[in-house]
Design brief:
Chain A has 22 helices and 20 strands. Chain A is α/β, with parallel strands linked by helices and 556 residues long. Chain A is globular and about 70 Å long. Chain B folds into two domains: 134 residues, no CATH class; 72 residues, no CATH class. Helix content of chain B is 70%, strand content 0%. Classes of the chains: A alpha/beta (556), B mainly alpha (254).
Chain lengths: 556, 254
């Protein structure tokens, strides 16, 4: 039995200027080749733990770190981040910030040049690192021309070339589309097979399901540490740690079945043998007929100034009061289409009409009041010193009176459940910043709300809050269009899916046929929610756990 | 849209030693700087144009053609009308304007040629070979990487604020400047955050590992470098001679 790869004893870390520790009393030991997945809500200390392991705290971010960390049997104390480069690597969520060269080879070579690797050894190391992440053949490419998944894999290759036996990945797939996510997870599996010790921070339980050990963090402490089937099979443990429990776990708990399995097939088998097979009612899905078209897209084509065609002949109509999900791989034209809905982009051919009027010709202040657009990254729009000022910005641009501005700010903040008008937007956590961004658009009282990936990067609780907010707004009569990559968000909240593939409209209709069609799902690099896949294995297409339960006859 | 001008081709010019490339750029700039007779400048401009073709940089020239034309026309018109006095067109002014226009375009073209055949990493490497500290060369590389990201972020921020009714193009200068606050703040904060994360990523890859640095780029000067170097040297000498003899200079320059 070889020495453990990672040993953490009594680790505590308090950032400079913070009143309470970001992590404390952390003990853990990982054998070489283990895959550990760390989960928990935002602010639970997951990233801090990763930064302590790589010595980013205190070398980079000032803070007080106490306790012991040993990597491969050697204390990490007193080592600089750079000195550990061949021992432990770390990948961030923001893949753009990890690339700094103009071609792929140079990117991988960077670490080698800085750790005294002889030049003669470099070509082989580069070739191996690129092969390990599936980027062989990309040697001369400019990293800026790669897709998100490719960029993240390149960042991993840059570290792999240094041959670190331990690798820490802090939400490596959060900013990727399902296709890119799949690519990175595949790379992880390969690294694991090669015997690397992996510490992965993740929100998604599907990744955690294959781990050797799962750690739940809460308020800086490890609240649970166990095999994945134990932790992920326990609804309460998940919820306490702010982790979204897997669909199967919730279903089994509601049906009173013990030991939920993590695999869909195994779960289907258990339900069959327990006689708990859902029988959907012979219902006709009421096609939500719109009250009249609000937005009419006709033959829309868009070509970017660099000559790239992003949309081909897209036609669709969105009725008042609809809740539409716009899906597709990155680069399929989703965001391009969404940006036409409020005139941020003008059609190359075709038209986009709002209540019969061409959107491209509407004056800006009128458009802002009709179609609100919330960008994916709230930090692209927050600038004011206080929350109240931030929300007041839009209404003031419209030239409204002071009393009117005040009323709208109060209304918008109440809608998104933010109450401290004097708070500094930059000190809010990600979820609150996202809701503030929505409030700043709501204050313009638009009829249509377009949101680009409103739940990306949020933890389970924050996602839940965001979706409740959207559901409330929808119930109050707003038309909502969201661009999203998250299957359960679509299944539980929207009524209609619009799928784009390579700039063309591939599907436009209700959810159930979409999630029942493998070909369509593949075109979007999508997977149906677990509960839907489980239902499919049993011959029906439920969209939510509640629906599955309602269809399942139970012995009383 | 790529913001760098590097043309990924493997022409003779691309394969030159980075120091030779800097030498070529320097030679063209010096040559165009010392003379100002249009006729003397024409062969120089022709040579640069020929090299641009050789470097497969036609697309770059097309991309920047508006700049070439604008610089040329503006310079020519201004010198023609203002050389001898306010709004007094003169033939001497026209000649001087013509030479300045050719020279400015030659500077532009030489720079374009250099950027078309040189990777940023090569520039850093060449500067290192010329004795410039590594930190300077590396900062240059990073800047090339950060500038496009900066523009991307700025474009998103402008769109996001437009959605909130921000109109940039109206009002007095002061109100316009104030309108830029909602754009500048998010862009700057975003850039700072990104720079911070990038610094972490650099260290994680061994920057500051305390070990001596090695280099992957291993440019060896070959026959092509000897030829290019000799030609560059000859060009500079010829143009210096033209300048010294007065044959390269316009008469009547104030």
């Amino acid at each position: 039995m070889s020495a453990p790869a990672v040993v953490v004893r009594g680790l505590a870390c308090t950032y400079a200027g913070a009143s309470r520790p970001a992590v404390r009393d952390v003990d853990c030991e990982l054998p070489p080749g283990a895959l550990a997945v760390v989960m928990g809500a935002t602010g639970a200390g997951k990233s801090t733990l990763a930064r302590c392991l790589t010595r980013i705290v205190p070398c980079f971010l000032p803070g007080e770190v106490t306790g012991e960390i040993e990597l491969l049997g050697v204390p990490a104390r007193d080592r600089a981040v750079g000195e550990l480069a061949g021992t432990i690597g770390m990948v961030f969520q923001d893949f753009e910030a990890q690339l700094f060269s103009t071609d792929v080879t140079q990117e991988v070579v960077f670490g080698l040049e800085h750790t005294s690797v002889p030049p003669a050894e470099m070509p082989e190391r580069v070739a191996r690192a690129l092969a390990a992440v599936g980027l062989a053949g990309f040697e001369g490419r400019d990293p800026t021309t790669l897709s998100g998944g490719e960029k993240q894999r390149l960042a991993i290759a840059g570290l792999l070339a240094l041959r670190p036996p331990i690798m820490v990945l802090d939400e490596p797939t959060t900013d990727l589309d399902p296709a890119g996510r799949g690519e990175v997870l595949q790379v992880l599996a390969r690294l694991r097979a090669e015997g690397l010790t992996l510490v992965v921070i993740e929100h998604d339980t599907a990744t955690a399901a294959v781990a050797d050990i799962v750690l739940f963090l809460r308020d800086g402490e490890v609240v649970a540490r166990d095999a994945p089937e134990r932790l992920l099979g326990d609804v309460d443990a998940c919820l306490t740690a702010g982790v979204r429990p897997p669909d199967v776990t919730r279903l089994f708990a509601a049906l009173g079945l013990p030991d939920p399995p993590l695999g869909i097939e195994a779960a289907a088998e258990r339900l069959r043998s327990a006689g708990l097979v859902p029988r959907p009612p012979a219902f006709h899905e009421p096609v939500p007929r719109a009250r009249g078209a609000l937005l009419e897209v006709r033959g829309l084509c868009h070509r970017y100034p660099d000559g790239r065609d992003a949309l081909f002949d897209v036609s669709l109509s969105i009725g008042e009061g609809e809740f539409v999900a716009l899906v597709g791989r990155n680069g399929s034209g989703k965001t391009t289409l969404a940006k036409h809905l409020n005139g941020l982009l003008a059609p190359t051919a075709g038209s986009v009409r709002l209540r019969g009027r061409e959107v491209a010709f509407l004056p800006l202040e009128q458009l802002a009041q009709r179609v609100g657009y919330v960008f994916q990254d709230p930090d692209h729009q927050l600038f004011a010193a206080t929350v109240g000022e931030e929300v007041a910005f839009g209404p003031r641009n419209l030239g409204l009176s002071r009393a009117e501005v005040d009323e709208r700010v109060a209304e918008a903040l109440a809608a998104v459940d933010l109450h401290e008008r004097a708070a500094d937007p930059f000190l809010l956590d990600k979820g609150a910043r996202q809701r503030l961004a929505v409030a700043s658009i709501l204050a313009l009282r638009p009829d249509v709300l377009v949101l680009d990936e409103p739940t990306t990067g949020l933890d389970h609780l924050e996602q839940q809050r965001m979706l409740e907010l959207l559901t409330r707004l929808h119930a109050a009569g707003r038309t909502i269009v969201i661009v999203t990559h998250t299957p359960w968000v679509i299944a539980a909240h929207t009524r209609r899916v619009v799928l784009l593939a390579d700039g063309r409209l591939r599907y436009d209709g209700p959810l159930r046929p979409f999630f029942a069609n493998e070909e369509l799902l593949a075109a979007a690099a999508f997977r149906a929610p677990d509960i839907t896949r489980l239902g499919r294995a049993l011959g029906c297409t439920p969209l939510t756990v509640d629906e599955f339960l309602a269809w399942t006859p139970r012995r009383s | 849209m790529p913001l760098t001008l590097y043309v990924p081709a493997r022409t003779v010019l691309h394969r030159l030693h980075p120091v030779t490339k800097i030498g070529l750029l320097g030679a063209f700039v010096v040559a165009a700087f010392v003379v100002d007779r249009p006729l003397v400048l024409v062969p120089l401009g022709g040579a640069i144009a020929g090299l641009l073709v050789l470097a497969h940089a036609g697309a770059n020239v097309r991309r920047l053609r508006a700049m070439f034309v604008l610089v040329f026309v503006f310079t020519l018109v201004v010198w023609t009308w203002f050389f001898t006095g306010f709004f007094r067109p003169s033939y001497a002014g026209f000649l001087y304007g013509l030479s300045t226009a050719i020279r400015l375009d030659a500077f532009l073209a030489a720079g374009l040629l250099f950027l078309s055949i040189t990777r940023v990493e090569e520039v850093a490497y060449a500067l290192g070979r010329l004795g410039v500290p590594y930190a300077v060369g590396f900062t240059l590389t990073l800047a090339f990487r950060l500038v496009p990201a900066f523009f991307d972020a700025a474009a998103s921020v402008v769109q996001a604020q437009r959605c909130r009714g921000l109109e940039l193009a109206s009002g007095s200068v002061v109100t316009r400047l104030r309108r830029y606050v909602p754009i500048i703040v998010p862009v700057l904060i975003g850039a700072l955050r990104r720079a911070d994360r990038m610094a972490m990523a650099l260290e994680l890859r061994g920057f500051n590992s305390g070990r001596p640095r090695t280099t992957y780029l291993r440019a060896r000067a070959g026959r092509a470098d000897a030829v290019a170097g000799t030609l560059a040297m000859a060009t500079v000498l010829v143009y210096l001679a033209l300048w010294a003899s007065g044959a390269g200079r316009l008469a009547g320059r104030p």
